[in-house]
Predict the structure.
Amino acid sequence: MDKILVHGGHPLNGTVRVSGSKNSALPILAAALLTKEPCVIANVPDLSDINYMLQILSHLGAHVERASGVVRIEAGKLKTAAPYDIVRKMRASVCVLGPLLGREKEASVSLPGGCVIGDRPIDLHLKGFEALGAVSRIEHGNVKLFANELRGATVNLRGKQGPTVLGTDNVMMAAALAEGTTVIESAAAEPEVVDLANFLNKMGAKIEGAGTRRIVVHGVAELHGAEHEVIPDRIEAGTYLVAGAIMGGDVLLRRVDPSHLGSLIDALNLSGYEIEAKADTLRIKGHPSPKPLQLTTEPYPGFPTDMQAQMCALLAQTEGISVISETIFPQRFMHVSELKRMGADISLDGHTAIIKGVAKMSGAPVMASDLRASAALVLAGLRAEGVTEVNRVYHIDRGYESIDDKLNQLGARIERMKA
Ligand code: EPZ
């Protein structure tokens, strides 16, 4: 297994190009199953999670071609059972359920296991599918769906932690081909949900209200092929903004949509960082004495859970007491024990981290776990004294395109060691 060595203390300055959004590309690639006509998706990032999704689509019978960031999918005849050995590697595989149900009126996908950030139930997805008239059952570790027909319905997709992103995506995709109108109440409003709705509408769907808590889907008889460019990855962008903050440099991000990062920009401004937003760029300059913060993760447009670990790494080296409460995935603190091995002073109280900023952290061998926790360890290593060895770097490669190359281009000194 590859590992990366992060040599601390190298300032960051320069420009970094943000890749296409992983969390937008995954459901959009799955949505191509809704038509037998070819779809062409551009700005698809080169990530292992994307590769897994393309493997699943191929297994289901779709013809998949990829040329650098452009993917062409033609889903003629479809199988409806996704293979366990690939699905188990990526929880987001569940987003093939909606398209298969919508197109074939049946689906069988192995249940996503839990993962290090916590239990990953799909009860809300099933609630939505059942509202449309599907029958669901769990059999030998698979979730199986079947429907004679799909009829529009009103369904509230709010769970105890709020809306569900992939659940909203899945129900929207199935409802696109249902008879009649579906209203999704308490819908997720993430930019990635809006991007999917825009792609579905290009395919001939009739979806209104994406980006709000109430999405209306007027079912149509069939969908046709379409072309689409995936939005920039706001979490990758946020990760590089935090890298610039940690190293106090002058970092410019290109091909980013600042309107997707409002809550992060607000937090960094509050801490004292100077951020300049233009149409598709963001620039951050360091600050000599940034202030500590109190943050709570919330559904979009609130502070994103996917930026919580990265902010822990920043606040661990920001003088004063900071507090971060994690309301979406309450156990999402795998990074804390590793940051403490680097000298961070963080205590956990339930789903809240109390962070006492230290002047200097020290490099250490650390273990990557979930995607964002791993990125946080790299960020901490940028500034820590000495070398931080991040093991199991495949976690990072799931969601960050060439993170070592991009940071090295900014002046970091990161070596990737092939295992
Ligand atoms: C998406 O996951 C993202 N993944 C996650 O990003 C992100 O953290 C998450 O949304 C929240 O923003 C992709 O888009 C591929 P949820 P998703 O359903 O859709 C509970 C990353 O790092 N819930 O919005 O799976 C759930 O347990 C990844 O890129 C139910 O209770 O998350 C959680 O507490 C990590 N029942 C909350 O809702 C359900 O049926 C939000 O989950 C579904 C979810």
Observations:
- The two ends are 5 Å apart (CA to CA).
